[in-house]
Amino acid sequence: MMSTIEIKNLSKTFQRTGASEQSAVTALESLDLWIQDGEFFTLVGPSGCGKSTLLDILAGLSSPSRGEVLVDGAPISGPSLERSVVFQQYALFPWLTAAANVQVGLESQARHGQGLNKAERRVRAHEYLSLVGLEGVEAKYPHELSGGMRQRVAIARALAHEPKVLLMDEPFAALDAQTREQLQDLLLDIWKRTKTTIVFITHGIEEAVYLGQKVAVMSSKPGKIKEIVDIDLEDRLSVDDIRSTRRFGEYRHHIWTLLHNSNQQETDTPTGKTLVTSGAPA
Ligand SMILES: Nc1ncnc2c1ncn2[C@@H]1O[C@H](COP(=O)(O)OP(=O)(O)OP(=O)(O)O)[C@@H](O)[C@H]1O
What we know:
Elements: E1 5-17, E2 22-35, E3 40-44, H1 51-59, E4 66-71, E5 74-75, E6 83-86, H2 98-102, H3 104-111, H4 118-131, H5 147-160, E7 165-169, H6 177-194, E8 197-202, H7 205-211, E9 214-219, E10 224-230, H8 246-260
Parallel strand pairs: 3-8, 3-9, 6-7, 7-8
Antiparallel strand pairs: 1-2, 1-4, 4-5, 9-10
């Protein structure tokens, strides 16, 4: 089967120029990952381990120092509407209405002759605002919306042109706990409906376990994948309060242990299954 994203031997080094000398920071070192088509893949790791660097490379905003990243077999050569990004801060255009913000990617497609006409774009924006639970806010400007609503608009905008991959860099970190949980459920619901491949970065172990089919645990200095944990839980949306179940707690604890014990070589898995230690398929 064709994988959507293959990361092979990826390294990223930043040059730093100080007052007297040049130094290099290795943000990512020899990373291998394989993210399947339609997978919900979460990444957790300590601050500075290279999560955003990896996402920027996947987005085509930054290029690898070594190694390669392939999407459906083709190397990434720059940003593309096939890979949408949602950042922590609501990167909406303040001078555009919610509907116009959602249409930004659609207009870009139309300029390249592949898109919808104006009336179709308006309908599509309405559809995607409804999908994120924001019917009726089409004409509102970002400053008239709450933080959670703005992030919903950002998700609608990222999805409206139907990308293959959704890249999310701590998208819910700035929200209050209740809104965050609502948007987690909304995202799971959208993922189930659209089967878009999602790569989701978070600081939150619980968030990673709740959302991910796989959780990649990173270690820092230099940034590496420490372990990939397969999360074998029921459909989160069909179980009441899955976060309180024993199994959920075991996954959370296992990942917590990985993050807090950087010298640890092996750990037992919550389910007794063998953990995958590299992202590459066997
Ligand atoms: N443009 C840059 N120039 C120099 N160093 C950089 C640059 N971008 C990132 N780094 C360094 O690379 C390392 C990884 O940074 P990155 O932002 O990817 O980490 P992160 O895991 O996303 O951190 P956080 O969780 O705090 O957002 C850090 O040491 C950082 O200082």
